[in-house]
Design brief:
By secondary structure, this protein is α/β, with parallel strands linked by helices. It folds into two domains: 243 residues, Type I PLP-dependent aspartate aminotransferase-like (Major domain) (Aspartate Aminotransferase, domain 2), CATH 3.40.640.10; 125 residues, Alpha-Beta Complex (Aspartate Aminotransferase, domain 1), CATH 3.90.1150.10. It has 14 helices and 14 strands. The strands form four sheets. The protein has a seven-stranded mixed beta sheet with strand order 2-10-9-8-5-3-4, sandwiched between helices. Strands 11-14-13 form a three-stranded antiparallel beta sheet, covered by helices on one side. The protein is globular. The protein starts with 13 loop residues before the first strand and ends with a helix.
Length: 395
């Protein structure tokens, strides 16, 4: 007997949170294409196209570029289970939630985890990074380049330079930077970098791009213990894609189509143009926020992500009420903070297809109305301030 469940009818949202973000129409079209088998030669050609397109986006010449069948956390876990072994010292630069998740996974691996702590919203000076790494002399160093919980950007060059002095591998979380900001894996000295499909790449969630340096791959070949995870064993995955195409898992074919199309869109736009667009929309948003009388949580402009903005919620104003008004009245989704930042910030994603002038102006206008409705004395029009910024930038 039929249960009477109707067809899908999801609400139409403007996704401007920390991810997922809006998906390009061409990517949706790619998802509609007929699937082939996970061992079909056509699928492996799709993979090769993705691998070629990932190099410039990661900013790397690494031959090893892979896609893990899983969300961003699967990329994180892949990096840690392959390169961190029991008894190893893992040094974590801890200034947000996803640094804590790295620490948690490292502890589950039996690593000795040491942390350099910073308040959520701050990053690390070159001197602090070097002193910490040289003091601890770890086997592996991990940091989050784009901390989604705080909006802080840490390029990682100073961290990697210090790690080289003690011959440590460097793992960089690029989940919220890839596709929207320069990741510069090679320039920044990152040995293992991973990301996800649903943020700066403007795909649905489900895939985790990863790249490893030749130095990291040599360490992996020298590893004597088997990788404790079968699913995330890079040597087995590499043998599936690169070697004998020996069966490892059934890859999500349609998502690979989607990722290929998303990377083609980036290639057509051009990385410099894409980075310029993200930076411009970020700066216009900040101009609007500050005109209204709000402050950004990350104080130093050069330490702010272009892709994930964290304006502070004014004292006495409910972030939940603001977000509810934005969703109910404008179909705009932004998310709030959590952990130490719960109720204190909004997390506004300007990534990929969501990073447009139209979305910035719409959000600022909607946020101003929501703030006024909640009793906040808005100083000036955020939309007008952003429009003035755009005009000046175009002059």
């Amino acid at each position: 007997m039929a249960l009477g469940i109707g067809p899908l009818n999801p609400p139409k949202r403007i996704l401007m949170g920390p991810g997922p973000v809006m998906v390009e129409p061409r990517v949706y079209e790619a998802l509609r294409q007929p699937i082939v088998s996970h061992v079909d030669p056509y699928f492996f050609q799709i993979f090769e196209d993705i691998r070629a397109l990932l190099g410039p986006v990661f900013g790397t010449q690494n031959p090893f570029r892979m896609v893990i069948s899983g969300t961003g956390t699967s990329g994180m876990e892949t990096a840690l289970v392959n390169f961190v072994e029991p008894g190893m010292k893992l040094a974590v630069f801890a200034n947000g939630y996803f640094c804590d998740r790295i620490s948690n996974i490292g502890e589950r691996q039996g690593a000795v985890v040491v942390r350099l702590e910073k308040p959520w919203g701050e990053t690390f000076s070159e001197e602090e990074a070097r002193e910490f790494v040289l003091r601890e002399k770890p086997h592996v160093v991990a940091f989050v380049q784009a901390e989604t919980s705080t909006g802080v950007y840490t390029p990682g060059k100073a961290i990697s330079a210090a790690a080289r002095e003690v011959d440590a591998l460097v793992i960089g979380d690029c989940v919220t930077s890839l596709g929207g900001m320069p990741v510069n894996v090679d320039e920044n000295g990152i040995d293992v970098a991973y990301s996800c499909s649903q943020k700066g790449l403007s795909c649905p969630p489900g895939l985790a791009p990863i790249t490893c340096s030749p130095r990291a791959m040599e360490r992996l070949r020298e590893r004597r213990r088997p990788v404790p995870s079968f699913y995330f064993d890079l040597k087995l995955i590499d043998d599936y894609y690169e070697g004998q195409h020996r069966y490892h898992h059934t890859a999500p074919i349609s998502m690979f189509y989607a990722l290929r199309e998303a990377l083609r869109i980036i290639d057509e736009e051009g990385l410099e143009n894409r980075f310029r667009r993200h930076r411009l929309n970020h700066l216009a948003f900040v101009a609007g926020i500050e005109a209204m009388g709000l402050q950004m949580h990350v104080r130093e402009p050069e330490q702010r992500l272009w892709t994930l903005n964290t304006p502070r919620v004014p004292e006495g104003i409910s972030d939940a009420a603001l977000r509810r008004r934005l969703l109910d009245e404008y179909a705009i989704e932004v998310l709030g903070g959590f952990g130490p930042l719960a109720g204190k910030v909004l997390r506004v994603g300007l990534m990929g297809a969501s990073s447009t002038r139209e979305n910035v102006l719409l959000l600022l206008e909607a946020l101003e109305r929501a703030l006024r409705a909640e009793g906040f004395p808005v100083k000036a029009s955020g939309r007008e301030a952003a429009e003035s910024f755009y005009a000046a930038a175009a002059a």
